[in-house]
Amino acid sequence: MSGGRAQVMVVGTYHMDNPNLDYVKSNYKDVLDERVQEQIRDVVARLLRYRPTHVAVEVEPGRVQALQARYEAYRAGRLELGRNEIDQLGFRLAERMGHSRIYGIDYSLDLDFEAVLSTAARQGMTRFLASFERLTGEVREAQERAELEGGVLGLLRYLNSADHDALHGVYMQIAAVGAGESYVGAQLVADWYRRNLFMFSHIAGLPQRDSDRVLVLVGAGHRPLLRQFIMHSPDLEYVDPLPYLS
């Protein structure tokens, strides 16, 4: 029970149109393939059991007008869903719940991983570089294996698991790069926290009633920090998506 607090579920997802904007690159099946469409419809049906009052996606509030126009066109039957997770999951969930609005909660901020890696190489941080390369490879393999074995549902289960959340610890390794000089690693980590904190500020402003249930769809890398911020908020109750995806 929420105990007088609005509920927020953060569902970590992957970029379904696969633009490879994240540092870890992966190859997934085309979401418009009918078999994948069946899997996505199954995921939507499971998440609908949460009965969200708000559906929020990874779009900046300043761009939400264009997002809203596309969503209204979809509701009116004038728009075919694109390949991205905003359309495939966000639009479907909001439309099935009869929502007239969809919300954007992103905050754009570039992270210069290349500057961190070049600094680490210059400083001779071979242990960090080897660990970082090994970790990114393991993440890619784990994500592709989860999709191969369990389809979209299996991949989302992994992306919302404690095993995947634990990978956020790599940011603590990054923070040490450039310490005492440029602090390039600590600056990147500070920017990462800053971006997610701004995203949380958008999420926290959505509920208007204690009975509200917000569902947030974001890249899975954001989930550990957003979960932490929500759990520390006296006004919000965090809802784990895994029981709904089981």
* Amount of helix: 40-55%
Task: Calculate the mean pLDDT score and round it.
Answer: 93
Number of DSSP strand runs: 5
Low-confidence region ranges: 19-26
| Class computed from helices, strands and strand pairing | alpha/beta
Q: Please indicate the count of domains.
A: 1
Computed CA radius of gyration, to the nearest angstrom:
19 Å
Question: What count of helical segments does DSSP give?
Answer: 10
Strand order of the largest sheet: 3-2-4-1-5
Report on this model:
With 246 residues, the chain is of the alpha/beta class. It has one domain (6-245). It is built from ten helices and five strands. A five-stranded parallel beta sheet has the order 3-2-4-1-5, with helices on both faces. The longest helix has 34 residues, at 126-159. The two termini are 20 Å apart. The model is unreliable at 19-26 (pLDDT under 50).
Summarize the model shown.
This protein has 246 residues and is of the alpha/beta class. The chain has one domain (6-245). The protein has helices spanning 34-47, 64-75, 85-96, 113-122, 126-159, 162-165, 170-174, 184-204, 223-232, 242-245; strands at residues 6-13, 54-57, 103-104, 213-219, 236-239.
List the helices and strands and how they pair.
Layout: E1 6-13, H1 34-47, E2 54-57, H2 64-75, H3 85-96, E3 103-104, H4 113-122, H5 126-159, H6 162-165, H7 170-174, H8 184-204, E4 213-219, H9 223-232, E5 236-239, H10 242-245
Parallel strand pairs: 1-4, 1-5, 2-3, 2-4
